[in-house]
Amino acid sequence: MAKVAFHTLGCKVNQYETEGMMTQFEKLGYDVVGFFEKADIYVINTCTVTNMADKKSRQMLAKAKKNNPKSLVVAVGCYVQASNKELLEMIQVDLLIGNTDKGNVVQVIETYLESKTKPKILDLSQYKVYDDLWISMTQDHTRAHIKIQDGCDQFCTYCIIPYARGRIRSRSVTSILEECKELAKKGYKEVVLTGIHLASYGIQFDDYKLIDLLEDIQEIEGILRIRLGSLEPTLITQDFVSRVEKLDKVCPHFHLSMQSGNDVILKKMNRKYTTVDYKRAVDRLREKMPTCAITTDLIVGFPSETEAQFEDTLIFIKDIGFANMHIFKYSKRNGTPAAKMKEQVNPKERNIRSTRAIEMAENMKEVFLTGFIDVEMEVLIEEEVILDHQIYYVGHTTNHIKVYTMSTQVLEKNTIKKIHLKQRFEDGLLGSS
């Protein structure tokens, strides 16, 4: 049977979709091999979140054809959806597949090989169908990411994703729960719910939202942890918090997208909340779950951001006290309103602001981690690593602290162990069983 290789760029949703496409090929007897091996078909799941992501996607497509000049090189996903005319000019690319055909990717490719018929890249502006994908196994054998939603209606001024992913579409409850049950049967103890705009899950349904789904997954035997992907602070209502705190399987780790700590910049970004709204969401979570981890994303150097506005952001993030932060220097994305804004912050200033924000984030992470020294916590063992000739068993607590454990006994992968956390170590804490 033909050999097929995959490469994924971008987000967790893309990773899930690649695994779903792999599953389709494997079920039909294809031999899935590593990307740098010689394959008959290369499928590159592209990303278009930044201009650099576009460039990396093009580089991997070219690399695929170089691996085997006689192969079929297939570009799928967001870059195809947003800028397919650019990819049509690449001689290394044989076939373009948009985001709506990932669910039947094998059929599309086989049809092309038989008749050279190429699929149409659909306009997603009015597309309302959720294209189901299932996974049978994941590359991470201890936790499984499950995509429950696609699309975004927020239209943040810096973001191209609504144009690449289309409008909000939610996966059916039945499909999600069936996949969770199948993964539980295969031994997965932790599921991570992902989506393009996770907080909007269920918006098309009459009376079923994300919190209802969490309550249903809570009842699935074998699933011991439910982890959430990135959320909007507007989701964190009193009702949501009062219901989620009763679900002992939901991990107390909430990644609340922030982007700026200044209200003027938030408005220019077209974010749908203020700093007051954000702080209220954090306070609600911490009131009910004091040991929860709050993490976030921050964009520095957004067009027109002044030094004073950046200082406001530093004051705000220090006041919140995040467990971890992802710091991004604003990168102009062609096709977005922000790319046309005047007063673009110069690259040197963006670098300075990024360095300052990263330093503050590291300090906050240190405070968060040291607060759990001399505490016993449950850790899902994920892998075994060797550092300086010493074996460590590595995993995460429910609130996403990375733990390195020294043990005189073998700790089996994909088991949950109570670990005594002793001291700071590497990028997390050192413990013993």
Notes on the structure:
With 433 residues, the chain is of the alpha/beta class. Among the domains are: 3-122, Methylthiotransferase, N-terminal domain (Rossmann fold, 3-Layer(aba) Sandwich); 376-432. Helices cover 34% and strands 23% of the residues. The protein is built from twelve helices and 17 strands. It has a five-stranded parallel sheet, with helices on both faces. Strand 14 (390-396) and strand 15 form a beta hairpin. The longest helix has 24 residues, at 347-370. It is globular, with a radius of gyration of 22 Å. It starts with a strand and ends with a strand. The mean pLDDT is 95.
CATH topology call of the domain at 3-122: Rossmann fold
What is the number of beta strands?
A: 17
Strand-pairing-aware structural class: alpha/beta
Name the overall outline. globular
The top level CATH class name of the domain at 3-122: Alpha Beta
Radius of gyration: 22 Å
**Main sheet attributes: strand count, strand direction, barrel closure:** 5 strands, parallel
Task: Report strand %.
Answer: 15-25%
- Spatial order of the strands forming the largest sheet: 2-1-3-4-5
Give the termini separation.
47 Å
Q: Say which CATH homologous superfamily of the domain at 3-122 is assigned.
A: Methylthiotransferase, N-terminal domain
Percentage of helical residues? Answer: 25-40%
The string of secondary-structure elements, in order, is EHEEHEHEHEHEHEHEHEHHEHEHEEEEE
Would you identify the CATH architecture of the domain at 3-122?
Answer: 3-Layer(aba) Sandwich
Low-confidence stretches: none
Number of helices: 12
**Average pLDDT taken over every residue:** 95
